[in-house]
């Protein structure tokens, strides 16, 4: 579920016509690329010039796969999880997520 907003708001903007994207949202990929120096998204968006845009055409084909295969599979999976999710399962999933975000204490401080 967390991946879907990133997909629509950052990754797939390279495929949308520019006039479809409000200016406030068109700044998200710029911010992301400035923050991370991601050569894939930066090149697919054309931030690094035409030569990079042409060189990373293969990555734009991966974005098409993401748009037309991965997104529908995510949605189908979310629907399936929603139908079978119980309160007990939800609390266990939340516990796993919380446990994975807390760094383990590996060194004893004296």
From TrEMBL:
Xref: PROSITE patterns: EXPERA
Membrane topology of the entry: Multi-pass membrane protein
Primary localization: membrane
Transmembrane stretches, start-end: 58-82
Chain ranges of the EXPERA domain: 1-110
Localization: Membrane
Record's keyword terms, sorted: Membrane, Transmembrane, Transmembrane helix
Keyword Transferase: no
Presence of keyword Secreted: no
Family matches, as Pfam families: EBP (PF05241)
Cellular component, GO, one term: membrane
Protein name: EXPERA domain-containing protein
Species name: Trametes pubescens
């Amino acid at each position: 579920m967390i991946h879907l907003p990133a997909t629509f708001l950052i990754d797939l903007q390279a495929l949308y016509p520019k006039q479809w994207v409000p200016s406030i949202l068109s700044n998200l990929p710029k911010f992301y690329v400035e923050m991370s120096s991601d050569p894939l998204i930066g090149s697919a968006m054309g931030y690094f010039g035409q030569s990079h845009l042409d060189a990373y055409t293969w990555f734009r084909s991966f974005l098409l796969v993401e748009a037309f295969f991965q997104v529908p599979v995510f949605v189908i999976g979310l629907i399936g999880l929603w139908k079978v999710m119980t309160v007990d399962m939800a609390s266990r999933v939340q516990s796993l997520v919380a446990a994975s975000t807390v760094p383990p204490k590996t060194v004893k401080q004296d």
